[in-house]
Amino acid sequence: WEKYRATYDVSTEFAAIPASLQRPLRIPALMHLLAQAYQGEAIPDAEVVSASDFFKRYFEVKVGPDDERRLVDGIAAAMYEAGQTPLAQALIADDESLRDLLSEKADSAYGRLVDKDVIREFEEARSLRDARLIEYTIQRFGAWVLASYLAERTAGPGEQVDLITEASAKFATYPPAWDAATMLLVQVADDEVFTRLAASDRSEVRELVVSAIAELAAFDDTRVHAVVAAMLAGDNGSSRLTALRAAYRCTLANPDIAFDDEFVAIARGADDELRQMLHDTLYLIWRRDPDYTLGVLRTLVAQLERGQVVRRFWELPETRRLLELVAQ
Prior knowledge:
The chain has 20 helices and three strands. By secondary structure, it is mostly helical.
């Protein structure tokens, strides 16, 4: 970071970068992007709390007039529809609304974006029609552009669920679709959308939910608790298991996050299947972070009141279930 900071004259030292951004900055391309976005300035805590925020800032700094914005969105949409990146310039030019923007003149929208290193082009000798290929210089920025583009074209949880489910069909052949769907989910952060997707019979969709919640945990643990609680409240086994898998992944992204209320409710509840899921989740966490699991066990034991111990606490169903889980 010190090298990037010096090159782009960013006054913010690494220790002063918001904690939620320090993990994404392990990816060199994102570190480069952040430095470019705040060239000659400091990174303000209040303005940048998530990776999505500095993609937005980068967009505002790098992409200027309306014609550049239309072309950036159009390239993202064309890549998504074709399911490939890089994409032949000729395929983008098939869209009449973008054709004039692809002029090779230096002052065209296309020429300016290439000069600013937002997109790049290269040649590949396949045919005269698609020899010139275009891609975003920073692929995750392209995914953010696509997520924003798709978000503007959906209204309500139903359409959002359908769109993300449709995008999941492209994960295997078009990897940016995964990043775009994750970013879209984080932007939406809607309990119903997460819960319905978590109940999907497609494993890649459920894994997307886990990934998005873990990313959300890096900067908004309040929203994470609401989403996880909503997923656990239903009676769908896939949704509840996905919620616990997400809780586990969140402890990797943010070791300070705690799910005590959710775990206590499960431990005292009458759902044996869900309590077994919690047992397995705590075991997985214990293998990596024993102190975290021990802390949860202490929280569970602390639920016992002295009066319950004096009375025949073993006959109290909630207490019995809780102690059985701790003993396991």
